[in-house]
């Protein structure tokens, strides 16, 4: 499996920057839960942890949305050369984005179905063999 989950040994600053309520979310629940189970919540959020080596690519993460719903992607990255590509429900790329930004990006579903997110690591020329980072995904 190309994607590897990193243990809780991420840097303290990274862990502290994520609220405990978000960390408690199920990593698989965001795309599979029924909309009625979220009737009292404004947004559904999940944080996922990744560890990649140079040029490694994750599997596509699917987030099922209804037409008009928004997927927000915010990546907590410590300067590693990581990019991500977002694909629409038809598998067509919406764009590729750098993760070294202080803000998230919002994608609106044009029809019912999944939006996909896939991460890719660039060349890591530092002494660090693994590039650890986390991403917060929110559907609203």
Question: Secondary structure elements and their pairing?
Answer:
Elements: H1 12-16, H2 20-23, H3 29-32, E1 44-52, E2 61-65, E3 70-76, E4 82-87, E5 93-98, E6 105-108, E7 113-121, E8 131-139
Antiparallel strand pairs: 1-8, 2-7, 3-6, 3-8, 4-5, 4-7
Shape call = elongated
In the sheet with the most strands, the strands line up as 1-8-3-6
Radius of gyration: 15 Å
Q: What is the element string, with H for helices and E for strands?
A: HHHEEEEEEEE
- The helix/strand class is mainly beta
Beta strands, count: 8
Brief write-up:
The protein is 9% helix and 39% strand. With 140 residues, the protein is mostly beta strands.
Would you kindly provide a written description of the structure presented here, covering whatever features stand out?
The protein has 140 residues and is mainly β. It contains three helices and eight strands, in the order H-H-H-E-E-E-E-E-E-E-E. The strands form two sheets. It has a four-stranded antiparallel sheet with strand order 1-8-3-6, with no helix packed on it. A four-stranded antiparallel sheet has the order 2-7-4-5. Strand 4 (82-87) and strand 5 form a beta hairpin.
Key features of this structure:
140 residues, mainly beta, 4-stranded antiparallel β-sheet, 3 helices, elongated
